[in-house]
Structures are given as structure tokens and as C-alpha cells.
Write a structure and sequence with these properties.
This protein is of the alpha/beta class and 523 residues long. Helix content is 29%, strand content 24%. Bound molecules: adenosine monophosphate.
Length: 523
């Protein structure tokens, strides 16, 4: 029987030369280099420590720590020991942690030394038996205890259908749900992406000739930084230049040594503000990938003009890992504003409110299926059943369209759709018109309660830095005559910044909240 444990697949991607550098830190007080052997030995020691705790099979291991290479080692160790990794956004505070720990009932919790006094109390109250600490400077009880264990470890045997991780969705409405991902989900997706994005695995030593070098600047509590980025690099035996915190200047400084970069759109915007970002700095780069939130066409074009590279935009979510990608080659086939066709093995369809297929180019609900689609929401069988169709497709909650040639465009989340006077308004369409107006950098369109129309369209607009701030009345005037009256925002607010979460997603729920009393409806 072959072992379907994801760790075994990732370990199989390590280069033959285990003494080559696997990860080099960029922003620790002094640069640290971890070889492939270090990753193997350290994850074995932590896995042996976890084994020694005699946890029930498939225990959840909840982790809220600052980003560090050791946090990645902990992830590998949890896989290796056959338990279920449950990463938590480090912005979460006590009330949120209480919910997650109560809901997931982890047998082991790992937190920062600073959070230990309050977080351990929550965990022990919820029945967790072990709480260890891990600082981003290699301090804490986890590594102290692991140091006493052997540095070889036989990975636990797991099947494709066994759980590898639970990711709690950002949950902007209602309680956050735990998406259960299996070894099969994560491994199949990682392998598809390895081939599709042409990860370079040639040669036996790291370095630009034979293998890729990835700049890793994303958080690792999320699908993008943890699965897409880390799995990609580990499976390809690619070196990672590792930043615990995103710093545009530091990224630009290391670009000449790198070949792959992954970012959320806000990271690209911040990199564009760096004068050092030039075609010359990007000379060794072969791939810039963006996802997790929509990339503005303007950023896509500014990036091409400045660096000569076309950003590859892809689309995915916690429940499904990656679903679509713009083509890898030729670069010119990548289309700004789209997320590309479905990845090999992924089924993607667009249906109307009645569940019937929409013709190419028409907007509807996106549904998907494939070996990458999760097993369901943790301890929410009814919610899981609701989100799958009778014929087994997962309702993504995203609204979009697919052209005849398979290219997919995301229009927004279905819950962000505005229904005003019985008409559907897709925020992305109005945002596109607003963004093209002078003085506008970006915008967010939401619906708020309205006594006559049910909902009214309103817009929050970010003024372009350095330009005269646009007048709300002028923006509304400019849209009138260009788009149907019911789509024109009834109110425009000009701000300096949109509220975003750690992954760069605009928090439209906060905007709706802020303006819900505007028309006296539902205040
Ligand atoms: P999460 O589960 O936190 O990764 O959020 C997934 C959601 O992010 C998706 O359902 C989409 O709404 C959004 N998303 C991810 N990638 C893109 C993209 N390239 N363009 C637009 N929205 C995206």
C-alpha cells in the first residue's frame, strides 16, 4: 500500500543534495540558512514529540504563531505525525480564539510565548491537554521539548480521504466555518500546479540554473502562503527566500536572486511604489502570481509596463485550493481582469438562480468539482449539504462568467450582489467604471438597505494619491448616461483607504455596516 500522506509527496520533492539551502531568511536579525536536511530532521523531531503525546488519531493541532521557518516545520511535523493542522490568523483575539478552540477541540495548541497566559486558559477550559509555545525567534517550549527527540521519523500512513488540515473561512457573515481538506485534496492540487506553472526541478543543486527560487512573503495561516506557495516550493525542491513580514523594499532587493513570486494584489501595488522595481531587478524572474482578491487591470498593466512581466492571476478558495489559472505560456495569453480557465482536473460551471447552465459570457453562480474540492465543513453537516448540489458540485458563493474559450471572470461574491428595485447589480461592473474615472484609484460598491428599492447601490472611492480628490457629485454625474440609472450609486464616499483583511480582501461587510443607516432603512 502506498502512503498517501502529503508529507511523503512533499519530502519526495526535496533535491538529492540535502545539504543545499532550502530556506534562507531575509528579515531575521541575522540571515539564517536551513538546508533540506534541516527541514527533514527538524520536522522529524517535532513529529516524534507529537507522537510521544499519544494524541487520539487525527487530532486537531491548532496553531496561532507568528510566521517563521519553525512554524513551517511545525506544519510539516503535524502532517508527518498524521494529525490535522489548523492554522489561525495571528490577528485573532480572545473571543475569536475561544470560538475556534471550542469548535475544533484541538488536542494540542501551539501559541506564541506572549499569548500563552490567556490563550492556554482558553484551551485548557475547552479540554485541550497540551499547549506549547513557539516564538518567531526559535524560543518556546515546542522546540525545547522537540530537541529531546530523535531526528528520524517514519511518516504516519494516511489515505487520500484522511484529513490533513482545517482552514477556518474568514467568515465575514455569521460564524466562520472550518473547511476540511484531505491529504488527497492538497496533494493533487499541488501536483497539478507544479506541472501547470512549470516549476523547475532540473539539476541537483538549488540555484537559478536548475531550480526555482521563490520569494515567500505571504502569511502562512492561509491557503495562498501555506499551500500554494510552500507546497509549490517543497514539491519542486525550490529554495525559498523567506520574509516573516512583507517589506516591499526587501522584496525588491532580493528579486535578482529569485525566479517566482506570489502575492495578493495589495503586495503588487506596494511593490509598484518602490523606485527600485525595474525590468533589470526582475531579470531572473519567470513567474509573478497573484490571487486571493481581484487584481486591478491598472495594476496588471502598470506591472507589465514597469517590469516587462505579465502577472499570472489565479483563483481559488480555502474549500477548494486552486481552481483556475491564467495560462503559463505564452505569457501574452494571460488576460488581465480574468482568472483564466479551470485547471486540469477541475470542473467549473456557471449556473443561473434556477440551477441551469448559463450560456458562455453570461453571469451566474460558479460551481466546481474535482479531487481538490474539500470534504465538508467541520461539524456542520447541514451547512455542507447546503453547499453541494444534488449532482455533487460545490457552490463557491462566487458570481462570474466563463467565455466560450474557457476564460473565467469573477464578478464578486454572491452575498455582495446588490438587488435594487428588483434588478441585479454586480459590484465589479460598477467598480470598473468608477476606477476608470479621473482621480479614482480604486473603489468598492455595496448595497445598503433602502425603503423603496430594498437595497441601494453606494460606492466608497479611494482618491488617487497626488491627484485632486474627486467630487462625489461629479462621479455620480459621470456615471449617469454611461450606465443604467439603477446601477448608478445613490451615494459616494471618498476615502484614503479601503478596509482590507490580511489577505488584501476588501471587507465589504464593514462598509455595509458603516452606511446601513444612510437611507433610513434598517438603521
Ligand atoms: P479564501 O477562502 O479566504 O481564500 O477566499 C476565497 C475567495 O477569495 C474566493 O471565493 C473569491 O471570492 C476570492 N478570490 C480568490 N482569488 C481571487 C481572484 N483572483 N480574483 C477575485 N477573487 C478572488
Amino acid at each position: 500500500m502506498t502512503n498517501a500522506n502529503l508529507f511523503v509527496a512533499l519530502r519526495g520533492g526535496f533535491p538529492a543534495d540535502l545539504d543545499a539551502v532550502a530556506v534562507e531568511t531575509v528579515d531575521t536579525p541575522s540571515a539564517l540558512a536551513y538546508t533540506w536536511r534541516d527541514l527533514d530532521r527538524a520536522s522529524a523531531m517535532v513529529a516524534n514529540l507529537i507522537d510521544s503525546l499519544d494524541l487520539p488519531a487525527q487530532s486537531r493541532v491548532a496553531v496561532q504563531v507568528d510566521k517563521s521557518v519553525e512554524a513551517l516545520v511545525l506544519y510539516l511535523a503535524v502532517l508527518r505525525a498524521g494529525h490535522v493542522f489548523l492554522p489561525l490568523n495571528n490577528a485573532y483575539q480572545a473571543a475569536e480564539i475561544e470560538y475556534f478552540v471550542g469548535n475544533a477541540e484541538p488536542a494540542l495548541v501551539v501559541c506564541t510565548p506572549k499569548a500563552f497566559p490567556w490563550l492556554s486558559k482558553i484551551a485548557f477550559r475547552a479540554g485541550t491537554i497540551h499547549v506549547f509555545t513557539l516564538g518567531d525567534d526559535r524560543t518556546g517550549s515546542l522546540l525545547e521539548r522537540a530537541a529531546q527527540h530523535a531526528d528520524v521519523h517514519e511518516p504516519a500512513v494516511r489515505g487520500d480521504d484522511d484529513l490533513a488540515a482545517i482552514l477556518y473561512t474568514s467568515g465575514t457573515t455569521g460564524r466562520s466555518k472550518g473547511a476540511m481538506l484531505t491529504h488527497g485534496n492538497l496533494r493533487s492540487n499541488a501536483q497539478v500546479l507544479k506541472d501547470f506553472w512549470g516549476w523547475r526541478t532540473g539539476g541537483t543543486r538549488g540555484g537559478p540554473e536548475g531550480r526555482d527560487t521563490l520569494i515567500h512573503a505571504l502569511p502562512i495561516f492561509h491557503v495562498h502562503g501555506l499551500f500554494v506557495a510552500c507546497h509549490g516550493a517543497l514539491l519542486a525542491g525550490a529554495k525559498m527566500l523567506w520574509l516573516n513580514r512583507f517589506d516591499p523594499r526587501a522584496v525588491v532587493a532580493r528579486l535578482p536572486e529569485a525566479s517566482v513570486f506570489m502575492g495578493v494584489p495589495t503586495l503588487y501595488v506596494r511593490l509598484l511604489a518602490e523606485p527600485g522595481l525595474t525590468a533589470e531587478a526582475c531579470r531572473g524572474m519567470r513567474l509573478f502570481i497573484s490571487g486571493s482578491a481581484p487584481l486591478l487591470l491598472e495594476t496588471f498593466e502598470a506591472w507589465r509596463a514597469r517590469t516587462g512581466h505579465v502577472i499570472l492571476e489565479r483563483y481559488g478558495m480555502s474549500e477548494t485550493v486552486m481552481l483556475t489559472s491564467n495560462p503559463y505560456r505564452p505569457e501574452a495569453a494571460r488576460r488581465g481582469g480574468t482568472v483564466g480557465p479551470a485547471l486540469p482536473g477541475v470542473g467549473l460551471r456557471v449556473v443561473g438562480d434556477d440551477g441551469t447552465a448559463r450560456p458562455p459570457g453570461e453571469v451566474g453562480h460558479i460551481q466546481v468539482r474535482g479531487p481538490n474540492v474539500f470534504k465538508g465543513y467541520w461539524r456542520m453537516p447541514e451547512k455542507t449539504a447546503e453547499e453541494f448540489t444534488a449532482d455533487g458540485w460545490f457552490r463557491t458563493g462566487d458570481v462570474g462568467k466563463v467565455e466560450a474559450d474557457g476564460f473565467c471572470t469573477i464578478v464578486g461574491r454572491s452575498k455582495d450582489l446588490v438587488i435594487t428595485g428588483g434588478y441585479n447589480v454586480y459590484p465589479a461592473e460598477i467598480e470598473g467604471f468608477l476606477n476608470a474615472l479621473p482621480g479614482v484609484a480604486e473603489s468598492a460598491v455595496v448595497g445598503v438597505p433602502h425603503p423603496d428599492f430594498g437595497e441601494a447601490v453606494i460606492a466608497v472611492v479611494v482618491a488617487r494619491p497626488g491627484a485632486t480628490a474627486p467630487e462625489p457629485a461629479a462621479l455620480i454625474g459621470a456615471l449617469k448616461g454611461r450606465i443604467a440609472g439603477f446601477k448608478v450609486p445613490k451615494f459616494v464616499e471618498v476615502v484614503t483607504e479601503l478596509p482590507r483583511n490580511a489577505m488584501g480582501k476588501v471587507q465589504k461587510n464593514l462598509l455595509r455596516e458603516r452606511h446601513r443607516g444612510l437611507f433610513g432603512g434598517g438603521a
